[in-house]
Records
---
Amino acid sequence: MFKITSIFITVYLLAIGVQSKQCPLIQSMGDINGPAFMGLWYQLERYPDIFETGFKCQTANYSLNTDGTVNITHNEYTDVGDYEISYHGYGIPQPNNPSNVTEIFPEFPPMNANVLVVATDYVSYALTYSCRNLPFNQRYENAWILGRNKTISSISPQTLSQLKQMLSSKGSSVQKFRLTTQDCDN
Ligand SMILES: *[C@@H]1O[C@H](CO)[C@@H](O)[C@H](O)[C@H]1NC(C)=O
Ligand SMILES: *[C@@H]1O[C@H](CO)[C@@H](O)[C@H](O)[C@H]1NC(C)=O
Ligand SMILES: *[C@@H]1O[C@H](CO)[C@@H](O)[C@H](O)[C@H]1NC(C)=O
Ligand SMILES: *[C@@H]1O[C@H](CO)[C@@H](O)[C@H](O)[C@H]1NC(C)=O
């Protein structure tokens, strides 16, 4: 009996130990109407993220180039002093899955990331997601809820919870979402 119990506990502990913290299998929305997605988006909620700590009023402005790439301008303000920062990059949609976009920001600090458009209705909300596997069974994960308007109340509570469900059902911890302050004149 003792032996069986200890085997059971060992297997149980192993199972916890190997529980994957690698990226969940979140899909992008597949086909996307690129031109309809372009233009200005306000960031309304995000997972805490080192690059955006100390900043508020984040926006993204997307514009489509004739070759299918996307120009991206991110704007934000420092929490302290309302100092405006703007940085530029571009996105390369995958030909066979254009809602999966490789984003490249060549300026300091140079960054690139795979960003998925998980859902959007083009006119009020979008959910975007990015995740990278790290060594030691860890991941670096970002999620953003974007709106065409500045206030989270412009997205219905039902829609918001459906969007979060798309992440949580695949194993992402949506309780990490935090409201983005949008109190700037932009
Ligand atoms: C998105 O594209 C990258 C390569 O560009 C690929 O590694 C990744 O698996 C793709 N993700 C999804 C969800 O399609
Ligand atoms: C977004 O970018 C486009 C193309 O560069 C520009 O014409 C437009 O004024 C920008 N919109 C905002 C709100 O910055
Ligand atoms: C994208 O950016 C490039 C380089 O700054 C610029 O020449 C081009 O006009 C931009 N395209 C659009 C659609 O704004
Ligand atoms: C978004 O803002 C515009 C103007 O700022 C307003 O006309 C529209 O009703 C707003 N939409 C929602 C869903 O709040």
Note: The chain has one domain: 22-179.
---
Amino acid sequence: MSDTRHRPLLLTRRSWLLGTAAVALGACDSSRPRQGFLGAMERFNQRVQSALLDPEQFAPEEPVEALTPPGAFPQYFISDRVPLAPAGWALQVGGLVARPAVLSLEDLRRMPRTDYRIRHHCVEGWSAVASWHGVRVSELARLVGADPRARFVEFRSFDAGYFSSWDGPSAFHPQTILAYGMNGEPLPPEHGAPLRLYSGVKLGYKMVKYLTAVNFLPEPTGGYWEDRGYEWFAGV
Ligand SMILES: Nc1nc2c(c(=O)[nH]1)N[C@H]1C(S)=C(S)[C@@H](COP(=O)(O)O)O[C@H]1N2
Ligand SMILES: [Mo]
């Protein structure tokens, strides 16, 4: 299923509370959504939302009964067919780091593992529950010696250039992981194999699947949907 159907932005709970102007942005409105009044509002909202993001706040663990049945968890990718990892896949880690690295799945599996079962929120209005496991982005930052000036993290993929950039507090949140497993199994191709971003603090479109690179950067870059008018912060 290719994701060309995103409809106009739904308000996140936090945007709703703040009464943002973001609702006026259409999903396919690529006509300079960041400029003028809306752009100013979004920059304002980002500041307010970053200030509101409580690093102690966790997405609630869901009970086993809440698990979405196998096969019913929606699948999104912008490529025409399921993107398959290139032979010899490895994750490139760079940017403002002391030790740039190229990591295999084995390397990542040897790092401390985090597991949780939480709800996924897509901007289109659906939600679903799965359990995920992988390694925290904060662990990766420690491994490569990310510079404190790198207050943003960019995630890139082999899915037709899909990417997203994140604010540091969300990227380094304890529930933000590079997931290599779903529901106790290796991550399936439909859900981003071999490695995807997962988090309890962001909407679905921020969680880049089919990862190729993670870059620790001093400035935010955009994102596939973000560059098409979707909110950049996109907190749950
Ligand atoms: N590479 C890539 N990552 C992506 C997307 C995509 O199209 N390509 N879609 C995003 C959106 S909109 C959502 S809701 C989630 C969906 O994850 P799922 O396919 O595992 O349900 O992936 C996100 N990450
Ligand atoms: Mo989504």
Note: Residues 1-5, 7-37 have pLDDT under 50 and may be disordered.
